[in-house]
Amino acid sequence: MKTLTDIFTFPLTNPVAIFLLVMSVILFAPLLFRRIKVPNIVGLIIAGVIIGPYGFNILARDASFEIFGQVGILYLMFLAAIEIDMYHLRRNYKHGVFFGLLTFLLPMAIGVPVTRLLLNTSWATAVLVSSMYASHTLVSYPIVSRFGLSNNRAVIISVCGTIVAVLLALLALAEVIDVHLTGHFGAVSLLKLLLLTVIYAIGIAFLFPFLTRRFFRSVNDSVAQFVFIMVLMLASSLLARLIGLEAILGAFYGGLVLNRFIPVRSQLMRHISFVGNALFIPYFLIGVGMLINVHLIFAGWGVARVALVMTLTALVSKWLATWITQHVSGLGVNERRLMFGLSSGKAAATIAATMIGFQYGLMTEDMMNGAVVMILICCIVASLQTERASIRIRMRLTARELEREPVQHTGFARQVVAVANPVTAESIMRMALYMRSPLNTEAVTALYVRNADAGKSVVMGREALGISRGVAEAMEIPCRDIERFDLNIGAGITNLMREWNSTEVIIGLHRRSKIADNFYGSMIEQLMGSTDRMIIMSRCFMPIDTIRKLVVIVPRNAEYETGFGMWVARIGNLAAAFGVKTIFICYPKTAEYLEGMISEGGYAFTRRYRIMESWDDFIILSSQIDVEDLMIVVGARKGSISCTSDLENMPGFLGKHFSGYNIAMIIPAQFGEGNEKA
């Protein structure tokens, strides 16, 4: 039996005691420091200083901090990549590359002469130390994520610039060490690294999506999917390390490749964010604090002078880079401050350069200690700047949202999701929820209607209802689950929609069981005749988040239908949620209205228009639709403006040529009861 003395000897060695202390720090440090208005990140770093070997020596920086800390920084970069909206990234990547080049070149140009003259170093040491000024780590990114600013233009430019700056800084570091060891510039080794990088990038870009689609289509368990994503993240990091790049670059690139498979509002994203923010990232920040020896600042003028020169050079050069980028990119003052906060933090690459430089004799002990102090100060400055700028930007955005709230609220979807089959319930509910606006707080209604002939199918219907409710709860969307008896299923759905004043119903598309069956099925035919509200029918043979692209077929004069804006909004939300390319097959005039509606609504997704002049054009264009795409057909009720003989023939055409494809049919809202715009 162990005594208290055995367990509580310092530094702690008992695994349970170590983990208990770390979790207590993760829990209480942010709460305590928040009272004195210190950001959570700074609080965790300071807590690491206090409990670490250079503080009260309660904990040693053992293997657990090496492992969890390394995974933490990888997690940080991976989160930054999967939270980015790829549409916004494509629009801003040029500014991001510009910022990356600038935030590398300016610290190098300023740092080399300053370090050589003021610190009296060799040229090789000056270049190595300047690469530390140029590199930075997104230690304050969790603050941005907490304020919901991941897709802010300044954040995207900063994240993109980080990758460029870190990559160039690491190349500069590698060349300095190579020159130091061999005495000459190694052009061959540099070209080899660039070639391996290209092969790596192409290989990951093709292999990861292929594996992810296959895995997600065969395994529906959320825990298994989370572990699978973690395996890919670590694999991309390790492969990057094997070819000579830093693991953080591999984690970020792997996140970009997997971005479209992890929708922001999905349960998988919530799992990833929760685990990272609750465990790995705090572990990393505490570990950074444990490296810092604050006693060295007061040990003598040598370390303090080095730390002062290095810190000022790093911060001033980063500020200049953000100031120039702000004016070139047309950003505001708060956006500049946010960029400065994100690009001034230092950790992973800087620590690696410090250790390597000291190992090869390019840095003295004073310079190494000064670099560690620089890391602490830069992390504090980065966190304070990021939090202050994030608060101001969030307040500005919230004020705008409140000004538009009355207009937005009247357009929120009030959905009814009718389910009966446990096999299809999850995919139908997911499609409905991804079609909603992210700002929508209205409850979704999951409905199962049974009649006198239900029999044993009641059990299946109730199971489908439970699955639908579980999907909504996992996405933190309020859900009403209703089981209703009615002599007629279509009438049961229609009556409930009237009772709850619903804007639309989402239902599974009929799967033909007999040759005599029509494409929709008798129940949906009846539903179309009994309600004027929007009807969305879905039939997916694979998980919706593994769809390659959306193909939307729009009839002539669809823009004149009352429900035009409503279904455009639903498709806009769906495409933006998955970040997939969307192709509209439509008539020329309709394309103009579509683009205007999408731009006005601010739906961020890549779209293309394939213009057709006649039904024959559609038949030719439809041959380009793949079995892994989702075909969305916008229909029309008989007698409506957009209803033509070609559109009436559409169900037969789809049933004959696209029986094994993923299809969604949308019947827009019409004049009459329930014709809300959303």
What attributes characterize this protein structure?
disordered C terminus, Na+/H+ antiporter like fold, 24 helices, 63% helix, single chain, alpha/beta, Rossmann fold, 678 residues
Report on the architecture of this protein.
This protein has 678 residues and is α/β, with parallel strands linked by helices. It has two domains: 4-401, Na+/H+ antiporter like fold (Up-down Bundle), CATH 1.20.1530; 411-667, Rossmann fold (3-Layer(aba) Sandwich). The protein contains 24 helices and ten strands. The protein has helices at 4-7, 15-35, 40-51, 63-83, 86-118, 123-134, 141-146, 153-182, 187-218, 222-242, 247-258, 267-290, 301-329, 333-344, 348-359, 365-410, 422-434, 457-474, 489-500, 522-530, 564-578, 588-601, 615-621, 645-657, and strands at 415-418, 444-450, 479-485, 504-508, 534-539, 549-553, 581-586, 607-611, 630-634, 662-667. It has a ten-stranded mixed β-sheet with strand order 3-2-1-4-5-10-9-6-7-8, sandwiched between helices. The longest helix has 46 residues, at 365-410. It is elongated, with a radius of gyration of 29 Å.
What is the CATH topology classification name of the largest domain? Na+/H+ antiporter like fold
CATH class of the largest domain: Mainly Alpha
Radius of gyration: 29 Å
Gross CATH architecture of the largest domain: Up-down Bundle
* Global outline: elongated
Helix content: 55-70%
Major β-sheet annotation? 10 strands, mixed
Unreliable residue runs: 405-410, 513-517, 673-678
Number of helices: 24
Mean pLDDT: 84
The percentage of residues in β strands lies in 5-15%
What structural class results from the helix and strand content?
alpha/beta
How many structural units, i.e. domains?
2
Distance between the termini: 67 Å
The total of beta strands comes to: 10
The strand order across the widest sheet is: 3-2-1-4-5-10-9-6-7-8
